[in-house]
Amino acid sequence: MKARDQWVAFMTIVTKEIRRFTRIWPQTLLPPAITMTLYFVIFGNLIGSRIGDMGGFDYMQYIVPGLIMMSVIQNSYGNVVSSFFSTKFQHSIEEMLVSPMPPHVILTGFVVGGMVRGMLVGLIVSLLSLFFTHLSMQHLLITVTVVILTAALFALGGFINAVFANKFDDISIVPTFILTPLTYLGGVFYSIDLLPEFWRTVSLANPIVYMVNAFRYGVLGVSDVNVYASLAAICGFVVAFYLFALWLLRRGTGIRH
Amino acid sequence: MSALTIRNLTKTYANGVQALKGIDLEVQKGDFFALLGPNGAGKSTTIGVVSSLVNKSGGDVSIFGHSLDTQRSQAKMKIGVVPQEFNFNQFEKVFDIVVTQAGFYGIPAPLARERAEKYLRQLGLWEKRDKQSRTLSGGMKRRLMIARALVHEPELLILDEPTAGVDIELRRSMWDFLTRINQEGKTIILTTHYLEEAESLCRNIAIIDHGTIVENTSMRALLEKLQVETFVLDLARPVETAPVLEGFDGGLRDAQTLEVAVPKTQSLNTLFVALAEQQFEVMSMRNKANRLEELFVRLVEQNLPGEKA
Fold it and tell me: What topology in the membrane does the UniProt record assign (chain A) (predicted)?
């Protein structure tokens, strides 16, 4: 397949993915907007006013970057895991498998589709946050880079989850039992410097800590961890996840007899 | 030129089931080819391998000279597949399903839309273009899958049981459509349980059973192998005793229906002369079973594991 044809095929998947999540916007775009607004009201306004400053910022300002990242993570992952699993479940994956599209086009198409949803929800949450607090961008390039890489990483995670999933229960296990706890314990609502030494060290094993802090650095200019090391680690994970997902797709794991 | 060449194709599933035991098959360009076999014989596995939905265990597959192993992309551009089960997104609109499929083949959107319109019109689905596919009837869904398989204009069209569950009228119109595109030059491979369908549409045939090809010949040559054909004759008046028919086997099915096995060596004229001499008046006549069906059953029975020589 020529490069131009591959581009058309790639854009077809991306368009199809965007059409899918916008068609079902009450399930995909509205819930995170409502949930995050509730977080802003409850944690930011009601409880946050009693907590006071954190990291040199008022509590609302401190948690907003984490909540934006939480939305990006959950939606990038959720889009690909549900879309690719549905494609398997309805056997419409066969439409792609019979076509001459190489596996990297299929994988990249789904991942970019997931990234678009993650970043769109991130943008919606960011705009909503402006009703509650003021945000200034300290390092635009780092902010954008972290969002893109994080969305890519979790979209890839969602893809790998969907490849191995055999039933609908399987696509909710990882988000419920792994992703949500890691996100909540990933420094979204607090600085890990507040934790006792032991728990702070444990927290450093949580990859989401690095993403949330790198993003917070981009927005507020403060971070609990080294930002450039975080970016390097996220890049490494993205490459590793991409190669693993591509290998699974080439092998036909979960999709071909 | 060969549209499809299969050499020593084997497939063993993870559970140890050997679905294909080294089959060889050749389908010529422009042919209308039937691949028949009982359930579980290996038809769908063969089609699955050719359409890249099943990984083969061994052997070679080439489509218009392009190997599926070394020239996968070129080979895949040449085939369109209509699977047995509905395999499109039930929530997508009819038009979007066809246009999206074209995109997977690298066809730019304007041309994809043009082709989608062409094939949806040809298959009588244009009026349904904005409907979600789940709202279509079974027959319409089958036609949608044909439109989708044709949108990249493949030279080889593979249809796995395309008329299963389709009413007679629609089946006939699908036969007409398939005959027309075959006459226009498209090579067609068909699997079906309706042997009448294979007999009336296909020029060449392969019968697969227990993962091996038990017959591969032209339809004419195969039907010539039929040594005895059984006819059912409807008589004008009820009778009490069967006629005496020398050289024919048979008897009364009921007072007004006669069943006669006619050997290939005997002409029907001889039968009718004998009946007329005994004052039996025949009002109508039909085959007891489709001719291909008789042969098919015989070939498959011969191939039963316990009955092998």
Answer: Multi-pass membrane protein
Residues of A at the B interface, defined by Cβ within 8 angstroms: 1-2, 4-6, 8-9, 11-13, 15-16, 19, 23, 86-87, 90-92, 94-102, 252, 256-257
Average pLDDT along chain B, 309 residues, taken 10 residues at a time: 93 90 94 89 91 92 94 93 90 95 96 96 93 91 94 95 80 89 94 80 90 87 75 88 84 87 83 88 81 69 52
Q: What is the pLDDT of residues B38-48, one digit of tens each?
A: 888 898 899 99
Would residue A43 count as lying in a domain? yes
The ipTM assigned to this model is: 0.88
Task: Write the pLDDT tens digit of every residue in A175-226.
Answer: 889 988 898 888 888 888 888 888 888 888 888 999 988 999 999 888 888 8
| Domains held by chain A: number | 1
Determine how β-strand B282-287 pairs with β-strand B228-235.
Answer: antiparallel
Q: CATH assignment of B228-294, given 3.30.420.310, 3.90.226.10, 1.10.10.10, 3.30.70.1560?
A: 3.30.70.1560
Quickly count: other Cβ atoms within 10 Å of residue A4's Cβ: 10
* Domain annotation covers residue A203: yes
Give the Cα separation of B211 and B18 in Å (integer).
Answer: 7
3-class DSSP string for B249-264: EEEEEECCEEEEEEEC
